[in-house]
Specification:
The chain is of the alpha/beta class. The chain is built from 26 helices and 19 strands. 47% of the residues lie in helices and 13% in strands.
Length: 645
């Protein structure tokens, strides 16, 4: 890692080179301080341009220092030192200027960025707030409203939007170094703007701040860092800069030592490790240039959309022309919705759909590298699909099943070259959900497994390897979670109390609300299939509801009642009557006790999964529950919460 200085006339270039993301380690901070000192003493220099080598500008703190006491020089002091420099500093940004990297840029007198760059303050996603002037300088550059959005969500913005917000002074293309030199020459010919810390800041009335607090609290669902960030932003408008900085720093240090920050760091490191398992380090993945999906239902269309987002041309296979037309219509609906939300332009949506070929003929898959089966969760149907794939695909084409519950070994029975077969369990909607369970069979080749992880990276998903068992990792724990929720009902805890307790714990929905949304019949049909196969599957309370025609929101009633056009759950007398013979009066439990029961059941099942080798690491289970099942990220997952690391 280095910080170098070179000169071109009266312009100095300070270049940070600390691969892979130019993180602000203690050594880099010290070198930047020393550079500011040295250049202030150099009478021949009139301006300083701060650049970074490699693929990005400074993308934040050094993760190796997470959880350790900060070492001097502290970043706020470095930012202040650069802002106080006798010669103006200009940040020239490419890639991403995030967290401390963007705070450092705000300490510069000017900021310019390539049009492809982005800037942001993602600290709240790690359970902390910006600690080096992010809450004090940002509102002075962009205004209070933009600063609240930027700091409390942690979402970065692209350079063109950053320019409109006032976060940067110019957007450039081409040679960044030369563009920055030309910018510096022009800037030196004009009066300099005041340092950011000295710029005026608008105030807002108490009603506005109260409104923001309510909205952020609703969005955060128990996460505390966004609300602390809001408090510091308000202080930036009410207090002198130095006092607001002191509040920001004290808040940053307090949150850095919090349980929520520890949980979020745990998830952060697990996410970083997930895409590239050490066991596959020396295993090359197979090339992926063309893909296919069998089945154009909700799941299949979502998988096609995800593949198209990654740039792969896709063939969609359906059983007949009518089903194919429905599948392509579903896919078009996904892209149309993205246009309506502003995620895609109409031209981009058209390009996505243009890259999809529909067919009912398996022979069109002769040159496909990857085929993902996403048909109905029925063993006979899936085996018929793979029989066709075995006849028509190349012998080395990777073949994957998207099964949620079925044994992949049984699906692949009789498949030629089973070494190229693997389970890829996507989560619905597949183009949105980040989780991908990767399920190898005993015959799966290492190269096939490596390709599954490479596909996850290409799709921007979080991959977790799972062993073979009913439900793999996620659905197996979900089954235990739901069973424990039903056990609480049988012991007299009201349905609404269970759901309210889990919402208070940080879940978006409680277990019964979630079942009503997804449909009680899905798990019911899986249990019925197991019963038909001769397995002993005890009757559940959910079975009673489905047999009575109560399948959830789709039928106007499940655990709750629903009125047309309104998805708000209402207490159901019909459900109460159906369940009454199976419920006994019990002692009322507090919301905390309910949440402890349910999360404890998840953790217990997780420990069993680890003991059986179905999951390789506790962190993998936490990733599955956070990214696939709505477990509060800021609690770190059931294993982290139970002390299993």
């Amino acid at each position: 890692m280095t910080v170098t200085i070179d000169r071109a006339g009266d312009i100095a270039f300070v270049t940070v080179d600390n691969p892979p993301v130019n993180a602000l380690s203690q050594a880099i901070r010290q070198a930047l301080w020393d550079a500011a000192e040295a250049l202030d003493r150099d009478a021949s220099i009139r301006a300083v341009i701060l650049l970074c080598a490699g693929r990005t500008f400074i993308a934040g703190a050094d993760v190796s220092e997470f959880g350790k006491p900060p070492q001097p020089p502290h970043l706020p002091d470095v930012v202040a030192r650069i802002e106080a420099a006798q010669k103006p500093w200009i940040a020239a940004i490419h890639g991403a200027a995030l967290g401390g990297g963007f705070e450092l840029a705000m300490g510069c007198r000017f900021r310019l960025a390539l049009d492809t760059a982005s800037v942001g303050l993602p600290e709240v996603t790690l359970g902390i707030i910006p600690g080096a002037s992010g809450t004090t300088r940002t509102p002075r550059l962009a205004g209070v409203e933009a600063a609240v959005d930027l700091v409390t969500t942690g979402k970065p913005v692209k350079a063109p939007k950053a320019l409109t917000l006032g976060l940067i002074d110019a957007v450039v293309t081409g040679d960044l170094r030369e563009a920055a030199r030309a910018f510096a020459a022009q800037a030196l010919s004009l009066p300099l703007p005041p340092p950011v810390s000295a710029r005026p800041i608008a105030t807002k009335d108490s009603a506005w701040w109260d409104e923001q607090r309510k909205a952020i609290a609703k969005r955060a669902k128990g996460e505390v860092a966004p609300l602390h960030a809001l408090d510091c932003l308000r202080a930036a408008t009410d207090l002198p800069f130095a006092e607001a900085m002191a509040k920001e720093r004290a808040t940053f240090l307090a949150l850095r030592a919090s349980d929520q920050a520890a949980a979020l760091r745990h998830i952060f490191f697990a996410e970083r490790a997930a895409p590239r398992p050490a066991s596959l380090k020396d295993v090359p993945p197979l090339p992926l240039t063309r893909a296919a999906v069998i089945g154009g239902g909700t799941m299949g269309a979502g998988i096609v959309a995800a593949l198209r987002e990654a740039g792969l041309p896709v063939t969609l296979i359906e059983r007949d022309a009518e089903a194919l037309s429905r599948g392509l219509s579903t896919l078009s609906g996904i892209f149309d919705a993205a246009v309506a939300r502003g995620k895609l332009t109409p031209e981009q949506a058209q390009a996505r759909i243009a890259g999809v070929t529909g067919s009912t003929d398996y022979a069109t898959l002769a040159d496909t590298d990857l085929v993902i089966e996403a048909v109905f969760e029925d063993l006979a149907v899936k085996r018929a699909v793979f029989a066709e794939l075995g006849r028509h695909c190349r012998a080395d084409a990777l073949l994957a099943t998207n099964t949620s519950y079925l044994d992949p070994r049984r699906i692949a029975e009789g498949l030629p070259n089973p070494a190229r077969f693997i389970g890829l369990h996507f989560f619905s909607p597949a183009h949105v959900m980040k989780l991908l369970e990767i399920v190898p069979t005993p015959e799966t080749a290492p190269e096939t497994l490596a390709t599954g992880f490479a596909l996850a990276r290409l799709l921007g998903k979080i991959p977790v390897q799972a062993g073979i068992c009913e439900g793999f990792i996620g659905n197996r724990i979900l089954k235990r979670y739901r069973a424990e929720a039903e056990a609480l009902l049988r012991q007299g805890t009201p349905i609404a109390a269970v759901d309210a307790a889990m919402r208070a714990h940080g879940f978006a929905m409680g277990p019964f609300e979630a079942q009503d949304l997804g449909g009680l019949d899905i798990a019911f049909l899986q249990r019925e299939g197991a019963r038909a196969a001769g397995q002993h599957v005890p009757e559940t309370l959910g079975d009673l509801l489905v047999r009575a025609g109560r399948k959830g929101q789709k039928t106007g009633g499940g655990w709750y009642d629903y009125t047309p056009g309104n998805r708000s759950p209402q207490p159901s007398a019909a459900t109460a009557a159906l369940l009454a013979p199976h419920v006994t009066a019990g002692e009322a439990l507090s919301p905390e006790a309910i949440a402890t029961r349910l999360t404890g059941a998840m953790a217990a099942e997780g420990r069993a999964i680890l003991a059986e080798g179905v999951a390789l690491r506790p962190a993998d289970i936490d990733l599955v529950k956070v990214h696939g099942y709505g477990y509060p990220r800021w609690r770190g997952g059931p294993m982290f919460g139970s002390g299993v690391r």
